[in-house]
Design a protein that fits this description.
The chain is an alpha+beta fold. It has eight helices and twelve strands. Strands 4-5-1-12 form a four-stranded mixed sheet, covered by helices on one side. The chain has a three-stranded antiparallel sheet with strand order 6-11-10, covered by helices on one side. A hairpin with a 2-residue loop joins strand 8 (203-206) and strand 9 (209-210). The relative contact order is 0.21.
Length: 280
């Protein structure tokens, strides 16, 4: 299987990079990206589209430009392929990440885990606001495992990321009742000395029944700058190998992507429009 991510917060696009990147994705996606008001959102969306094509080229050993990427009614990207390859993309906070497999479906989600910015609300306030989305077991894991507010937020983000990975594995979009899921965490604390650690011992009960052993959840912590962290959760087949995500630079991603039309020169219009967008 394949697992990649880019720290998009660190990517400061140059003119040449942006023009090269826009040659590698479709007009429809470029127009969708152009609708974003903020530079950050446009940057993350573009990186996501490139990462999809990079992954497909790596997995299926074809030019990235050869793939026709479609979307389901819920907006989930996919390809029609004889190889039956599935992939899922997620972007949040600093990261854009993607995972792909030949073993059925896959769901990927990422969230902040440890951040330096003070929380605007207490964990009790946030959890109570979303109380109906958590089981009693999960509620207890968030609030009663520790008195440390930061650790309690860690637990909240972790559970929310796991729930989202399962919903994305289902591919059903917003509206799924999250409280049907009860995640049983077996390893409370990640080993911070092991940057490649992947936990795979979390279990899921659905409607009070343990789900099939063929399904697995992998969790990994990614270190960011200033001692911050982000978590990635995967919902996938037990047939898939348990392996860490590989970090890519934009230079590496662009090297793995080919222009959709080799005969056309890059259009500076998209770069100019990017520069008119608002900063955050």
């Amino acid at each position: 299987m394949y697992r990649f991510y880019i720290n998009c917060e660190n990517w400061k696009p140059t003119r040449d990079e942006w023009i090269q990147a826009t040659r590698c994705i479709t007009q429809i996606e470029l127009e969708r990206i152009d609708k974003f008001v903020f530079q950050r959102d446009a940057k993350f969306a573009l990186a996501g589209q490139l990462l999809i094509r990079y992954l497909l080229a790596q997995a299926l050993q074809r030019k990235s430009s050869s793939f026709e990427i479609q979307r389901t009614e819920y907006g989930r990207p996919f390809i029609n392929s004889l190889e039956k390859f599935d992939f899922n993309l997620s972007h949040h906070y600093h990261l854009v990440c993607i995972a792909g497999t030949f073993n059925g479906l896959i769901g990927c989600d990422t969230m902040e885990y440890r951040v330096n910015t003070p929380q605007k609300e207490s964990i009790e306030s946030v959890t109570n606001l979303l109380r109906r989305e958590f089981t009693d077991n999960e509620y207890n894991f968030i609030l009663n495992k520790s008195k440390d507010e930061k650790i309690r937020f860690n637990h909240f983000y972790r559970l929310w990321c796991l729930k989202e990975s399962y919903v994305k594995w289902l591919g059903c979009g917003i509206g799924y009742q999250l409280s049907r899921m009860n995640f049983c965490i077996n390893t409370d604390v990640f080993d911070e000395s092991n940057t490649k650690q992947v936990l795979s011992d979390t279990k899921l009960e659905l409607d009070n029944k343990l789900v099939d052993n063929d399904l697995r959840f992998d969790e990994q912590i990614i270190s960011l700058s200033n001692n911050e962290q982000q978590i990635i959760a995967l919902c996938l087949s037990n047939k898939d190998s348990c392996q860490p995500f590989v970090e890519l630079t934009m230079e590496e991603i662009l090297k793995g992507c080919s222009p959709l039309d080799e005969t056309k020169q890059g259009d500076e219009t998209w770069w100019n429009r990017f520069n008119t967008k608002k900063l955050r």
